[in-house]
């Protein structure tokens, strides 16, 4: 039997049901997501894109509680590298999500940097590399966000390196961590996105363990990824090709990642995400059931 991963709290998210947007006809209704995530054996969920689940705290509390679920985090997208001019609209959006996250008893806000390439159309929106000034805006903006979210809502931000954003590769992630205050900014390590961008999750945990505040569990298909990299395929079309795959068929191996996280000696959420937008409505549940079974076999 594997060693019990007693510091790891496993959950899932709307992403594993093909949900990327607050409202999209190709996504499963939110009631079905909640029913099926509970049926698959998960106790924790993320809110997903704001507006997908009910935003009235009393109603959402009722919906999740009667299914035996709890909320681990909310999610926001930010473009703080654009400088102080974007702070007010950013804070308006963050405040909406943070207020609901706080009301649901969660303690984390997952912060995803804005995409430099559109995730639906693959249109290039900005250069993939930031200037020095933009890096300064990004790091100072994230520190400000971390401070204000904590002071106002009692939440900790965890910044999510993500494909087709400016925080993606090992070089970008380490530059970001080295330039930000550890007390204000932690990392949401997404094992799939980090592998997609060439990173080693175990190495990152062992090197920057004190900065890892949250995990997303995900794997990539190495053969599809090789073709994606060779041909410069954008992230959205890569997902439609199946680049994010069902564990344990891809990389990185999740057992060593979970073991490294357990050795940190702190409680961590590990939220399963398998990017599948768009997908057939009957596809997610069987995958979710098998993935939960696999993670139990790892001790989680």
From TrEMBL:
The keyword Transport does not apply. Residues 34-297 form the Xylose isomerase-like TIM barrel domain. InterPro entries: IolE/XylAMocC-like, Xyl_isomerase-like_sf, Xyl_isomerase-like_TIM-brl. One of its GO terms (molecular function) is isomerase activity. Gene3D superfamilies: Divalent-metal-dependent TIM barrel enzymes. This is Sugar phosphate isomerase/epimerase family protein. The keyword Isomerase applies. Signal peptide: none annotated. Keywords: Isomerase. Pfam families: AP_endonuc_2.
